[in-house]
Amino acid sequence: MRKARNVILIILAVIIGAFLHYTLPQHDVVRIVNTYQERQDLNDWTRIFWASPDDQATSLANRDVQFIQTVRKKSWLFGFIRRDSDEVMVYRNEDTGWSWPPYFKFDTASLQTEADDLRSTPENPKWAVMTHYGWRMELFSAFPNAVTIRPAESPDVTIIPWFNIFFFIAVFGFVLFVRAMWLQFRERTVDPALEDTRDAWEKVDSYADDKRGRFKRWLDSWRGK
Predict the structure, then answer these.
(1) Which of 16, 23, 93, 190 has the greatest count of CB atoms below 10 A from its CB?
(2) Among 134, 155, 144, which Cα is nearest to 22's?
(3) Which of 63, 64, 60, 65 is nearest to 146 (CA)?
(4) For the CA atoms of the chain, what is the radius of gyration?
(5) Which letter does DSSP use for residue 144 in this model?
(6) pLDDT given at position 55
(7) Residue 156: what are its φ and ψ, rounded to 5°?
């Protein structure tokens, strides 16, 4: 029973962790190589990896999507430790509108213009910090969605994910608050109810033992005869 509970808890933790990793903002140091627009088919289950900014876009089987091609600095530990090597990364540039995740992004055209302005070559590089959410999965043609972009003085710029830090602090505080409320509720309501139930069961058990004892004595009296 304990093993099954642990397996369920691990599965839930993996699901929640994957959901947060996909949804929360991430920051990459990139050099923009090119931008382009391409029509994408949205008629299968991989539609979940694309934004649905309005009702019209939801009903369409395909639509034009803007992309930003970059060379990204490789990193470890979700971007906290930067490496010397580079890798290519392609971002989609879609409005999120009022849908999930709640980035309320409506400036796709402006972001594409900023990306065009930051295009550079390896001989004369311009570095930028790309804020995005989502995953790059080549098998399913899934791309992270660029949210904002800002110029960076060098590829060694330090990025502190303040939103993620405050988010996890808030979640940790909420968990502690809920735990404290549960402990208080258990102390005031659940434990007394369990104690009353235990007392009632002990009385019933004692009564049953007394009846069994009387019945046994009655049988013994007949046997004695």
Answers:
(1) 93
(2) 134
(3) 65
(4) 31
(5) P
(6) 46
(7) -100, 20
Element (H, E) at 18: helix 2-23
DSSP one-letter code for 179: H
Q: CA-CA distance, 49 to 136, in Å (whole number)? A: 10
Closest Cα partner for 26 from 115, 144, 116? 144
Question: Taking the mean position of all CA atoms in its chain, how far away is CA 123?
Answer: 39
Rank 35-44, 52-61, 117-126, 180-189 by mean pLDDT and report only the highest. Answer: 117-126
Could you tell me the end-to-end alpha-carbon distance of the chain, in angstroms, rounded to an integer? 53
- Residue 67 pairs in a beta bridge with 36, 92
What one-letter code names the amino acid at 205? D
Closest CA to 203 of 211, 214, 215, 192: 211
